[in-house]
Structure formats: C-alpha cells, structure tokens
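Batch job 17 of 40 flagged for manual review because the log was empty.
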Amino acid sequence: MGVTIVVAVGENGVIGRDGRMPWPPTGDMRQFKELTWGHPIVMGRTTYESIGRPLPGRTSVVLTRRPDFDPGAPEVLVAGSLDEGLARARELDEEVFLIGGAEVYAEALARDLVDRLVVTHVPLAPEGDACFGPIDPQRWRETVRERHRGTPDYEIVTYERTVPA
C-alpha cells in the first residue's frame, strides 16, 4: 500500500495546540485503531510524548534529532530522520502510517513520500500552533467520504495521490 498520513484537521488547518489535540475527542479513534492496527506507525518525538506510551498492536517508530532520546519502552524504535524512520518501518511491513506531527507531515508531503491521506475533517476552527496545509486537488483525489456523528460531527475522507511518486 505504501505510506499513509493519518491526521485530524480543523476547518482552519489547525491540528494541534501546545502538543495536544485542540478539540475534545471526536470519536475517530476507533477508526484510527482499525486502520493502523498491525502496522508500523511513524511519528515525531513530540507526538510520541503527547500520546505518552506505545500504542498496542503497532510498532512505533519515533523520529528525533536528540541522540540521547529514550522512549521508555524497548519495543519503540528510534530514528534520526524521516528516511531512517520509514526504512525501519518498511522492514516490518509494506504499509506504513505517519501519525504526526506537523513537521513530519510537511516533510513527507514536500518530498512526495506519501501515497494516501486519511483525514478526519473536524468542523471547528480552534487556535493552534500546528497546522496541516491545504489538500491540493491537482495532487490528491477524494476516494472515500464517511460522515460520523459525534460532538462535533466529523467526516473521515480518504485521498489518493493523482500522480505516482
């Protein structure tokens, strides 16, 4: 399958504030778990620290520029760059998920390393310090849209790359 970004985005592009989600849980965590279960997840150190533990059923690969970083769990792999993290994840599975944060998303998209986006669109415009750029319809084609009830209601949209990497 390749590399998939999984992200929840507000109407204004905000994805985080002070290392946390800028809205209460929407209910999309069940879909996130189903989507990523059994596959490696790659994330930046700040995202890992905000989660606070390895997620069960998945191998975590944490990206950090800190050579002394200790994830506190022997099953968590550490990589010094996105390239190294993706290589380590691909050794485990051909399907890899990038789960944050903003810098990881931006680098992966700028370097055309991503094949699919799974975006939870949250109909709120919170203040935040981490954003996800607009989805370019010339590069991404919507393939699935699921509406979900919650507080607030939300949509999970899958986008596939329109041009090969």
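Reviewer: the log was empty due to a logging misconfiguration, but the result itself is present. Residues 2-161 form a domain with the Dihydrofolate Reductase, subunit A fold (CATH 3.40.430.10). Unflagging and moving on to job 18.
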